[in-house]
Amino acid sequence: MKKILEAISEEMKKAFAGAGYEEELGKVTLSNRPDLCEYQCNGAMAGAKKYHKAPIMIANEVAEQLKESKVFSRVEAVAPGFLNLKLSDDFLCGYLKEMEAGEKFGMEMPAEEKTIIVDYGGPNVAKPLHVGHLRSAVIGESVKRIARFAGYKVIGDIHLGDWGLQMGLIITELQERKPELPYFDESYTGDYPQEAPFTIAELEEIYPTASGKSKEDPSYKEKAMENTFKLQNGVRGHRALWDHIIRVSVADMKKNYEKLNVEFDLWNGESTVQYLLPEMVEAMKKGGYAYESDGALVVDVKEETDSKEIPPCIILKSDGAALYSTTDLATISERVTKYDPDIMIYITDKRQSMHFEQVFRCARKTKLVGEDVKLIHIGFGTVNGKDGKPFKTRDGGVPRLEKLISDIDEEMLRKIMESRHDMPEEEAKEIADIVGLAAIKYGDLSNQAAKDYSFDVDRFTSFEGDTGPYILYTIVRIKSILAKYQEQGGSLDKVQLAPAISPDEKALMMEIAKFNTMMEAAFTECAPHKVCAYIYDLANAFNRFYHETRIIAEEDETKKAGLIALLVLTKDVLETCIDLLGFSAPDRM
Ligand code: ARG
């Protein structure tokens, strides 16, 4: 379906052509003087020079062509030659009806099937999730949903950090604590126990302990490196222990992500592509791309047009060990072979942007990926405390994800209990969790990803202003009006949209009509914040309309049905949008 500005411009273009001018002049834009008109066209000004005519004359002639227009209810040519436009209520209503009847509210689908892989979440096994991983999960989930809505085949991959030194550290600490376990006896040939020799709570405590020890004790670190080496070289007991660690850790992650309404299609990780490394490295050497530099194996990735220094991409360290970039390169290769993607999108902290620049260039240069595949890195900013400084816990650590979520949920519960004395605590708690998730996600997604933002529990949980709870409150308000209408015998299936009868109603309809324009931009720019900005404007337009309009009390049944139909559409669009942001609305709050 055409975007609203395209549809309107088409009418204007016909008018220019009809008056004997070139069509292209008929481009319509939103008015920058909303007090005077809704839309405007400056084509007559642009055409004046070419046609050696006063712009006002051209404008008058074009306006004349539009006298009978069904698209505009008013076309005014004003000095020195602007066309001020007002949309016809019938046309706007028709546009919304088409949106409502079509799939995806009129968003244009791609002509051919295309596949996108979104690499997000990226937690590290056995290390506690921190706020950075929250951003990656929240933004990535939304980018994934938006792309899926836009008609693409989308695969979300968590890309676990499951292969580095941290695994060796955990194994070392387990060995210290439970040396009697069969895993460390390399002469052992029997089966290993089915059950993991630790709980998730233990595991979470083991990593920080081991990491602390390795910083103080060089021999401990030495052992950890040796254990990492053994694991990476397939020593049986180490592999078996690693399997346990992954299983316990992944089960716990799944629970956490489920609470966040985040879902991955692939649970691959750095370990998944280890089998590809030797072959890939060999090919890079053979192809003449990789060469030795200070003992390490590197690929040059700088280009003549670079304005800053781009260091070579390191493939193997001097001790022969693979790096973060090596696994990322192999992962690209694996994805190309298995899924033949058209686009790969990575969502990480923006401090990793050099890493991805190097990896992307190296992947292209070494032909792991074709020129036609788009590689995109979305780097996000830092989450700061309320004071605008990087977030720290009281003891100076990085705040744990669970803590942030529980802080929000608690405050949400307090606010709900405060305004709803009648609500049983259990229900209030359930609702607080739903609204709390919206508070966190909206608080994050409403900022452009690359920007830093402040995690502000008070602001995020407020029912007023540009917040998740405000959006949900608006949806709940609509739901309750619709429920009342049904209680009084009305049927939502029978109502039909009708032309606006008040300026506030029209303003609401005009907001709704921007949906596919906004969605296209949100998709092509990987920009969930555009969805947030849209629903905030939409919720504001709805609330203004709601305060000025009798709906349930409207006596004229036909009028009332038209209003109810508009409420249904507003609710459907809002609910679709929040689903794209990765949260949902309760039935009451
Ligand atoms: N595990 C990494 C981290 O915690 C993020 C992984 C991002 N994805 C990737 N393909 N490199 O920083």
Automatic annotation (TrEMBL):
Keywords: Aminoacyl-tRNA synthetase, ATP-binding, Cytoplasm, Ligase, Nucleotide-binding, Protein biosynthesis. It holds the Pfam family DALR_1. Residues 2-87 form the Arginyl tRNA synthetase N-terminal domain. Coiled coil: none annotated. Its EC number is 6.1.1.19. NCBIfam families: argS. Monomer. This is Arginine--tRNA ligase. It comes from Eisenbergiella tayi. The lineage of its organism: Bacteria, Bacillati, Bacillota, Clostridia, Lachnospirales.
